[in-house]
Amino acid sequence: MSETVELVRDVLVADLPDEGQTIQILVDRPECDAIAARLGVPALASLEATVVVVRVETGGGGGGVRVSGTLRAQVTQQCVVSLELFDSEAVDSIDSIFVRNIDDTEFADIERSSDEPLIEHLNGNKLCLGELVVEHLALALDPYPRRPDQSPDEITYSLGPDGPSTEIETEKGPFSALGELRRKM
Fold first, then answer.
1. 37 sits in which H/E element
2. Which of 7, 43, 105, 172 could form a disulfide with 176 if both were Cys (CB 3.0 to 4.6 A apart)?
3. What CA–CA distances, in Å, run from 85 to 14, 26, 42?
């Protein structure tokens, strides 16, 4: 089974300069379309990241690489309330240390605060920055996106002859049906 990688931006660890390297990742249209399909979003208009990659010394003598930076994406999502499409911006910080010769049990019970870097395996001499950026984008997306101007009080659900439907009401609140019933009494 071959794994498809939507965003290939590999860095050879042995080729990194001693002072590290700043890398700008700009994603083209076919890559954006492939990433959007993978993440299950209607569209990804743009994705860019700026990361600094630097070699670091780690315990155990294996050495490692630290990747830190930010990503920014313009993404189209579907509102979970109204089912309408809307555009949003996803921004996330990246801070990971890739370590060779890591023992999984060494980090199994360590609680990590949000300001500490993630510790991950470094397999071989190649680091796939593209996959790291896509993973961070996936984590930055809201799993239950709502349009910024969408209130759950504006939605009514009904079952009509054509099946379930959702209608947006602009003036009625959640108890408007009770108010109408009271006026009829």
1. helix 29-39
2. 172
3. 45, 25, 8
Examine the pLDDT at 90 and tell me if it is beyond 80: yes
Comparing 44 with 99, the larger pLDDT belongs to 44
Q: What is the distance between the alpha carbons of residues 88 and 145, in angstroms, rounded to a whole number?
A: 9
* Alpha-carbon gap, residue 78 to 1, rounded angstroms: 32
Determine the Cα–Cα distance for residues 133 and 6; give it in Å rounded to an integer. Answer: 11
Residue 102, C-beta contacts closer than 8 angstroms, at least 6 positions apart: 60, 62, 119, 121, 122
Amino acid at 82: S
pLDDT of the residue at 2:
42
Give the SS3 label for residue 132. Answer: helix
Distance CA 145, CA 148 (A): 9
Length of the chain: 185
